[in-house]
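Dear colleague,

Thank you for sharing your sequence with our group. We've completed the structure prediction you requested, and as agreed, I am returning the results in plain text so they can be pasted directly into your records. Please verify that the sequence below matches your submission; if there's any discrepancy, let me know and we will rerun it promptly.
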Amino acid sequence: MIVVDEKNGVEETVREQQATEEVKVAVDGQTGCERELVQLKEQHARTVADFDNYRKRMAKEQIAYAQAVQARVLGDILAVVDDFERALSQDVSHDDVESWLEGFSLIHASLMKMLEKYDVKPMTEYLSFDPHFHEAIAQVESADHTNGQIVEVVQQGYLIGDTVLRHAKVVVAK
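Please find the predicted structure tokens below.
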């Protein structure tokens, strides 16, 4: 409201209104900032909760995936165990030993085929010692081999793809 005063009345009323409006804007602005702060805090809390739920869900999915892979591999291994149990339950006479051994050879071939299915292959490089692929369990003097050459493979090593699944245990020449 503007009051007309002869001396400075109009100016004072306008100044009072401007000051009042500035205070209202400042109060409204402060309230707006506080409102925005509350909204940002709520948004942050929701984001933190969403991330926590995501992390828990991913952990459960990883466990479920690992169990599914385990079940698949172990199911294949159980088929080989069944073959061994059938072979061992047979009454073997002295005359049947060869056919019994042939059965075990078939079981071994079946097991190797199953490993190949999972990209597991036996190591084939056994000329010179390589610590990335071999584990030296002994060193022996050998006239037939040079220093660092593999004299004997005690336990076969295996690769899964290009990664060592199990190091080969070897005897190395001095």
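Summary note from our side: The chain has two domains: 1-118, 119-174.

Kind regards,
the structure core
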